[in-house]
């Protein structure tokens, strides 16, 4: 029976965690898990007996493969006393090995994340390791998601595993005190996973491609483990609210939509309510994700684009930039500032009532926004540079400079790989959609 939708995401971290505990090596666990998954696919394709428990079957096969390889090594005599006998393998694999929560009562994905988010590993390598080990993404998929070369992603993965092995030795899940210290890094890693999904998977074809839902599932496990942590609650609020609004991000033809084009009736009302509840609980804190949750809550609770409280959103982005300065937050603050100006009451230019000064002030603010966005297009990292260029094109579009905007959208369509967004740029540029 073919592997059902969603089963792989559930089984993979359980397999890897069981193998890592068995072999003592996260590197070996990931390698032999991949081999076992391939054997499972071949077994089903060749008409073998139905696999009742995918995780148990793959773990058993991977353990035998690891033992076989170990026996072939020249160090067999030294290692033999430490290796379990093949016939004792199933007895040694007790219920805790394949429990969704393992021996520590911790969700398998979280356990692996806490391992992957070791301080001994560089921040960029943590993300690669987490995406590979926890989510089971391939190196090409990771490279595509993160916008790096495949060789760079592979090198980061190798360095992460080597650094982890050198720093910690045999695989082990950190204890509760150490997990508390690593929690901020784990939260940021899950946020990164959702950011990848939000940027690249606007309309997932199926559950296997839905990294956004995977991020939500891990956030659910984080909340279960840390229900009173305002940053954990803020993270889940951001993910829930982002997923709730996702159905309105593309039209029926698969073309991305601007904020003011979205049909808000398509939003997931259940997820909206749940996300706003989390945002309310997160508001007791003042950390990065508590602020992000407040911003997402304002976007999600507005009845329309015109009714969005852009002034408050711009203020919150300013607070977020103070707390967590990054090019992407800078772009978002500038966008919110521009919308604050553009959503104000139309200025008629009546000099007798002082409106001429308002026109001058409005123009000055927008000119400063454009100047800063232009600098970000030139100097920011690729992802923020793209966002700044999209923001400039939108600002030109909304202020009546359609030809200038169309030219910028044409240039963007040449470099944007996300199909719904590329189609949006083509539409704005006045080009025929494929």
UniProtKB/TrEMBL annotation:
GO terms classed as biological process: DNA-templated transcription initiation
Residue ranges with Basic and acidic residues bias: 84-99
GO MF assignments: DNA binding; sigma factor activity
Pfam family, one: DUF6596
Keywords per UniProt: Sigma factor, Transcription, Transcription regulation
Domain spans labelled DUF6596: 182-279
Spans annotated as Disordered: 80-99
Domain RNA polymerase sigma factor 70 region 4 type: 121-164
Family (UniProt): Belongs to the sigma-70 factor family. ECF subfamily.
Protein name (database record): RNA polymerase subunit sigma-24
Species assigned in the record: Terrabacter aerolatus
Lineage: Bacteria, Bacillati, Actinomycetota, Actinomycetes, Micrococcales
């Amino acid at each position: 029976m073919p592997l059902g939708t969603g089963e792989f995401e559930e089984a993979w971290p359980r397999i890897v965690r069981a193998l890592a505990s068995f072999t003592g090596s996260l590197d070996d666990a990931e390698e032999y898990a991949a081999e076992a998954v391939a054997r499972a696919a071949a077994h089903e394709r060749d008409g073998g007996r139905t696999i009742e428990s995918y995780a148990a079957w793959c773990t058993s096969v991977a353990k035998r493969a690891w033992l076989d390889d170990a026996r072939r090594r020249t160090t067999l005599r030294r290692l033999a006393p430490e290796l379990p006998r093949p016939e004792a393998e199933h007895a040694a694999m007790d219920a805790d090995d394949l429990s969704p929560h393992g021996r520590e009562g911790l969700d398998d994905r979280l356990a692996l994340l806490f391992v992957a988010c070791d301080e001994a590993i560089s921040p960029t390598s943590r993300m690669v390791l987490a995406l590979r080990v926890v989510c089971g993404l391939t190196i090409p998929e990771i490279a595509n998601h993160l916008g790096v070369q495949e060789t760079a992603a592979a090198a980061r993965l190798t360095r992460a595993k080597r650094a982890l092995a050198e720093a910690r030795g045999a695989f082990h899940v950190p204890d509760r005190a150490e997990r508390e210290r690593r929690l901020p890094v784990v939260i940021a890693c899950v946020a990164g996973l959702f950011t990848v999904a939000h940027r690249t998977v606007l309309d997932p074809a199926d559950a296997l491609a839905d990294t956004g839902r995977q991020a939500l599932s891990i956030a659910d496990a984080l909340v279960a483990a840390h229900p009173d942590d305002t940053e954990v609650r803020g993270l889940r609020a951001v993910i829930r609210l982002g997923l709730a609004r996702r159905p309105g991000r593309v039209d029926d033809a698969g073309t991305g939509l601007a904020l003011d084009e979205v049909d808000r009736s398509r939003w997931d009302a259940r997820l909206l309510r749940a996300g706003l509840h989390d945002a309310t609980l997160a508001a007791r804190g003042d950390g990065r994700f508590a602020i992000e949750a407040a911003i997402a809550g304002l976007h999600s609770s507005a009845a329309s684009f015109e009714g969005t409280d852009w002034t408050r959103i711009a203020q919150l982005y300013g607070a977020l930039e103070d707390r967590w300065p990054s090019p992407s937050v800078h772009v978002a603050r500038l966008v919110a500032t521009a919308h604050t100006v553009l959503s104000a009451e139309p200025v008629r230019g009546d000099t007798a009532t002082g409106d001429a000064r308002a026109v001058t002030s409005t123009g000055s603010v927008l000119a400063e926004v454009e100047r800063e966005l232009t600098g970000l297009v030139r100097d920011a990292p690729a992802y923020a540079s793209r966002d700044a260029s999209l923001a400039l094109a939108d600002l030109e579009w909304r202020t009546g400079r359609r030809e200038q905007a169309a030219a910028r959208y044409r240039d963007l369509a040449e470099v944007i790989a996300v199909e719904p967004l590329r189609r949006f740029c083509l539409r704005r540029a006045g080009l025929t959609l494929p």
